[in-house]
Amino acid sequence: MPELPEVETIRRALAPRVEGRRIEALEILDPRWCAPLDCAEVRHAVEGRAVERLERRGKYLVFALSDEVHLITHLRMTGTMLYDPGPDARYQRVRFGLDDGHELRFCDPRRFGTGELALGDAAREAFFAGRVGIEPLDGVLDGPALRALARGRRTGAKAFLLDQRKIAGVGNIYADEALFRAGVHPLRAAGALTGRQCEALARAVVDALSAGLEAGGATIDDFRHPDGVQGGFQHEFLVHLREGEECLTCGREIVKFVAAGRGTYVCERCQPRPRGVRRPQAPRGVRSGRP
DNA sequence: CGCCCTGTTGGGGA
DNA sequence: ATCCCCAACAGGGC
Fold this sequence. Notes:
Layout: H1 4-18, E1 23-28, H2 39-46, E2 51-57, E3 60-65, E4 69-74, E5 80-83, E6 92-98, E7 103-107, E8 114-119, H3 121-129, H4 143-150, H5 157-162, H6 172-182, H7 195-214, E9 255-259, E10 262-266
Antiparallel strand pairs: 1-6, 2-3, 3-4, 4-8, 5-7, 6-7, 9-10
This protein binds a DNA duplex through loops.
């Protein structure tokens, strides 16, 4: 669910309410959350420490605690971080008890969400160094920067955008959106993008993420604001029609196939398929049987 | 009713 | 470097 704009929306909503507060209790109801770390160990490191800052890096939500203790969380696909949701909230995995009587509950039906510990600023930097690249909304992503990152890569443009080690925070929905806005086919080799295409794609990534952020991260049906408000009724800021039949720009039928292992929606008139590249067949009902 | 497929993510192994 | 599969569950199509 949460790509960069969603996580940032959550961070902004929560920061004023948790910064300066001490985490008095950390109840890990699902040990899988912090595995392979021991729950008691994580609990001991967190409890009693103050949240100095609530930060975001890529799609990670980071509790920067006192004494350089960093609790690095990831919501993955279906995780939500709710503020005082009430005891009947479903799929509770972790409870953060704050020293002002309020609480944060991490809820996640699919149990993909994770919490990891970095002890010391250096450990935190090491954690991110191998996982996330530049922050696209920090003003550092332009055509030349994107071109430098894509240089030499033979993989498709979509797989490139989804690679968190290059550009942080772009997920499946914003990748499709940016490619559509830039008129770039997802299977076009990233390293073969022209300067003009890199320019368009960089701008499209920044614009799409910014639009999502302005809309309060309401991209996805499952999105839930920390206050429990459901978002994502209409993807009004998304130019690219995902569910519909026809391209809003030219009317051509949107085709779907699997690219970079994800469902991918394309208008092959607005995003011309490179010569020599065949459109993959969407495997329907076909399952590569187990041996 | 029940089976089968899909999915907003990232890590690990081939 | 790149691709495929998997984690665990809900929901929809048939």
